[in-house]
Write a structure and sequence with these properties.
The complex is a heterodimer of chains A (about 375) and B (about 525). Chain A has about 375 residues and is mainly alpha-helical. Chain A is built from 14 helices and two strands, in the order βαααααααααααααβα. In chain A, helix 1 crosses helix 2 and helix 3 packs across helix 12. The longest helix of chain A is centred in the last third of the chain and has 28 residues. Chain B has two domains: about 250 residues, P-loop containing nucleotide triphosphate hydrolases (Rossmann fold, 3-Layer(aba) Sandwich), CATH 3.40.50; about 190 residues, P-loop containing nucleotide triphosphate hydrolases (Rossmann fold, 3-Layer(aba) Sandwich), CATH 3.40.50.300. Chain B is about 35% helix and about 20% strand. The chains are: A mainly alpha (about 375), B alpha/beta (about 525).
């Protein structure tokens, strides 16, 4: 008896919906074993990760706050990935957006500038993120350089650039030598949705981005172009679509969304520019994009789920002394299972019996 | 049924009583999921026999020979070799037992020499020098001339096939399987191949000859086994059958005759190509050399030629997948279009059907409605201010389904789930429904069942009757003879002057396909110009 993968005639829509759930299930089983090996009670640990954060308003708001950048970045990445353009550097585009937007905040600090400041920060952050993403895109189109490598390497450039700014020119003179800018003025801060709460305007923007992406991909010719270039490049060329233009476009949009997410994070929950503004949002968003099946609505759900793991991870650290790195292990295992389960959409498992048995059965 | 009675006696002429066949399959079955690719097939192959395996695409011919060659494991049934049951672990075991195979698609490395390619395909441990010497000897013995030191990319398709045949023969097989060997040959090259095959037969070897060219089978083969829908229909002596009776067994019914409308009138030139030259896009591609022709409305021009002589490059240049610097090289509906994109050419009224159905003509994993949009977005009212009109795309699917009898499981399935014939009907239908002024179509019925092929050829004729200019590239000379008004031949990137179909004998076309010119005077003139 032998287990083989067999190609399906048509992709299974049921499995396409169920596969992320199978992946989550397998991840939880694996994590249970891992917790047991770490000597923690798996049931308590899973409770801390997945149930506890859902029980109070503060944690629920915090999940939405964490999901906001994840969803915005993942939407942009999904456009790239659908078009077969592999932007791995959203983390860098996020940081550059944060830096560019912060420039306005730093320069207008204490000048009593008007309400134009925050919109201007958003626009500049998006533009900077887009331009930063265009570097690997143009290298890919003009020179054939692997966008995977170049976009990834630019993450470290952005990281160190931010580090230099907050330790050097932009450091808060009253900041006791901490590497951080001064706290942004109220006009340079993202407004809260609930007085005294955590939820801010950025979450609304993320929802608008999800809606826009759903319309783009489902209803417009440009969305069709993105999907067909990725799914069948030669057919796309036959259809009159230009893959190189699309690499440029999807990278730019993805960079703009990551940059916007960056400034929203800095001008929102953080309130000033400092190193470590991102716990790896740009990388976790890759998992969100795939867990959400590169589908806008799926990404929204997946973004909330991964935000839950961030919050849950913090709670598990506080309550059970489980290291925060376990959250990253969890996310990595999840991506692994998501990609593995995806093969079930086009293939199915089949038990095959050796020749002899069947032959004797039919004769 | 008569066929069934005859099936009981697998050796119609009773010559082999008393001995056991060289190779025998008993109830050989191969299942892919719920699909039975081979359903309990019995076949006997005797030494000194050229045995034809006939059937339409999808009848199960390839699956059967893959089982015999050890490439796949049968789900049930058995294979007997010289009377004893064998279970092949893979092709190398098949080869070591004396079973050789020449595939339709060659597995050769373009940048390696003939000898290096042969060495890579052999399991033996002899030195390269010995092997080269033996290669030369085998190729001489069988009249298959090959220069061991030449690199494969310099060779013609016929020569490449020789490498594959010589490679198989160097293992001294008792049984040789050939998969559609004449599909890539000129009529003259095919005749040469038949001489080699007759000789192999005289040496006592057996040959399993896969084909769907019936005249060829009648001429060459001693026995024919016909498959249809995965089942064996009959085993017969093809010389006692007519091409029509063999075709009936293959198809399981009568084939519709294609009818050309009487009094088709040619009108103004709708597609004109002027001195089109284009460097190849890929290494070892073919350079298009000074191609010129004029195609009028109401006319079908056929382009014949062995594959790989620039047909793909010509299609790319005509469709606009590759652009020409000089706009005047391609003129569509009186407008210089050499520099225009495929979308702009479609807007001028041109439509295109490429050779590859999946991955080029359609996105395999997308729905038919989305594949309608793929070529219809430019000029068919399917897009409104950037938004897709889903109803319009679905309407195209429905109309193509009705007009061209596209059979599918549901209203709007993925392209890849359709059979080759039905997908091709959809693709041709999708383009014809746009009422094109010019249709450029490449291998319209390649790998398509006879019923679908008849529908497609009729559609092309009807389109021309309605006034469109139709350019058909095909390797099937019978197809061109059936529908084209004139036939030109591509060779090494050159296009011959078109011949009226009535004057284009197989011999003339074969000479042109092999690179000879028909009249020395004409050639001298061409050089002078």
């Amino acid at each position: 008896m032998q287990l083989v993968l067999e190609k399906r005639a048509e992709r299974s829509n049921t499995i396409a919906l169920v596969s992320p759930l199978i992946a989550i299930g397998l991840t939880i089983v694996t994590m249970t074993i891992l917790f047991a090996i770490l000597g923690k009670n798996p049931l308590l640990a899973l409770h801390a990760y997945f149930i506890a954060p859902l029980t109070d308003s503060y944690s629920l708001q915090e999940i939405a706050v964490k999901a906001t950048p994840l969803v915005m970045i993942a939407i942009g990445l999904s456009l790239c990935y659908l078009a077969n353009a592999w932007n791995i550097g959203a983390e860098g585009q996020f940081l550059i957006g944060a830096v560019a937007g912060s420039w306005i905040a730093v320069k207008t600090q204490g000048t009593d500038a008007g309400a134009w400041v925050l919109p201007a920060m958003f626009v500049l952050a998006a533009a900077a993120g887009a331009l930063y993403a265009l570097i690997p895109a143009i290298c890919k189109v003009k020179f054939g350089a692997s966008e995977i490598l170049t976009s990834l390497m630019l993450v470290y450039v952005a990281d160190l650039f931010l580090d230099y700014l907050v330790r050097g020119p932009w450091r808060d003179p009253q900041g006791f030598n901490f590497p951080t800018t001064a706290e942004f003025d109220p006009v340079a801060t993202v407004p809260l949705l609930i007085e005294g709460g955590r939820l801010h305007l950025g979450s609304i923007i993320a929802l608008l981005v999800v809606a826009a992406a759903a319309i783009l991909l489902g209803r417009t010719i440009k969305g069709f172009e993105i999907r067909v270039v990725g799914a069948a490049p030669r057919a796309a060329r036959f259809g009159g679509f230009n893959a190189n233009q699309l690499i440029i476009l999807t990278f730019a949009v993805s960079g703009a969304l990551a940059g916007l997410a960056g400034i929203i994070e800095v001008a929102g929950p953080v309130g000033h520019l400092q190193p470590g503004i991102s716990p790896g949002y740009g990388f976790t968003a890759i998992i969100v994009a795939f867990l959400g099946r590169l589908n806008p609505l799926g990404i929204l759900i997946a973004g909330l789920f991964l935000a839950l793991t961030f919050i849950g991870g913090e709670q598990a650290q506080i309550a059970m002394k489980i290291p925060l790195d376990v959250t990253k292990v969890f996310q990595g295992i999840l991506l692994f299972y998501v990609l593995a389960c995806d093969s079930l959409i086009l293939y199915r498992f089949k038990l095959v019996f050796p020749n002899r048995q069947v032959a004797s059965g039919t004769h | 049924m008569q066929a069934h009675q005859r099936m009981l006696d697998p050796t119609p002429n009773g010559l082999h009583s008393g001995e056991s066949p060289l190779l025998q399959t008993l109830g050989l079955t191969k299942r892919y999921g719920d699909f039975l690719a081979n359903d309990s097939i019995d076949i006997d192959i005797w030494p000194k026999e050229i045995h034809a395996l006939l059937g339409e695409n999808g009848a199960g011919k390839s699956t059967l020979v893959k089982s015999i060659y050890g490439l796949i494991q049968p789900s049930a049934g058995e294979i007997r070799w010289q009377g004893g049951r064998i279970m092949l672990s893979g092709p190398s075991e098949a080869r070591s037992r004396g079973i050789g195979m020449v595939f339709q698609h060659f597995s050769l490395f373009d940048n390696l020499t003939v000898a290096e390619n042969v060495a890579l395909g052999l399991d033996g441990k002899e030195s390269f020098k010995d092997m080269s010497a033996r290669l030369e000897q085998v190729s001489k013995t069988y009249g298959l001339p090959l220069d061991p030191k030449r690199e494969v990319w310099q060779l013609s398709v016929g020569e490449r096939q020789r490498i594959e045949i010589v490679r198989a023969l160097m293992q001294d097989p008792k049984f040789l399987i050939l998969d559609e060997p004449t599909a890539v040959l000129t009529p003259q090259e095919a005749d040469q191949l038949f001489i080699v095959l007759e000789r192999l037969k005289a040496e006592g070897r057996a040959i399993l000859y896969i084909s769907h060219k019936l005249e060829e089978v009648k001429r060459l083969c001693d026995t024919a086994t016909i498959l249809r829908g995965g089942k064996k229909v009959d085993t017969c002596n093809p010389r006692l059958e007519t091409a029509a009776s063999l075709a009936r067994m293959m198809v399981g019914g009568e084939i519709k005759e294609v009818k050309a409308a009487a009094g088709r009138k040619t009108t103004v030139p709708r597609l004109v190509v002027n001195d089109l030259s284009l460097a190849p896009a890929e290494a070892h591609g073919v350079r298009l050399e000074h191609i010129s022709f004029e195609l009028k409305g109401g006319e079908i021009l056929g382009i014949a030629g062995v594959a790989g002589n620039g047909q793909d490059e010509l299609f790319a240049a005509l469709s606009g997948e590759r652009l020409s610097k000089d706009p005047g090289t391609v003129v569509i509906e009186g407008i210089a279009a050499g520099h225009l994109s495929i979308t702009q050419r479609r807007k001028l009224g041109a439509a295109f059907v490429p050779e590859e159905r999946l991955g080029h003509g359609t996105a395999p994993r997308m729905k038919l409605s989305e594949n309608a949009l793929l070529t219809g977005h430019a000029a068919s009212g399917m897009v409104n201010h950037g938004f897709i009109d889903t109803a319009a795309t679905l309407k195209t699917v429905d109309r193509a389904t009705e007009t061209f009898d596209v059979r599918k499981a549901k209203r709007d399935p993925e392209a890849a789930s359709l059979s080759g014939g039905n997908l091709q009907k959809f693709i041709v239908g999708r383009e014809i429904l746009r009422n094109p002024a010019v249709l450029v179509v490449s291998q319209p019925t390649w790998g398509v069942d006879a019923g679908a092929a008849a529908v497609i050829r009729q559609a092309l004729l009807d389109l021309a009757t309605a006034g469109a200019a139709v350019l058909v590239t095909s390797q099937d000379l019978d197809e061109l003879a059936e529908i084209a008004d004139r036939i030109a031949v591509m060779f090494h990137g050159h296009l011959s002057a078109p011949l009226a179909t009535v004057d284009a004998s197989r011999e003339k076309l074969g000479l042109l396909m092999g690179g000879s010119s028909l009249e020395p005077k004409e050639a001298a003139h061409a050089v002078g110009a």
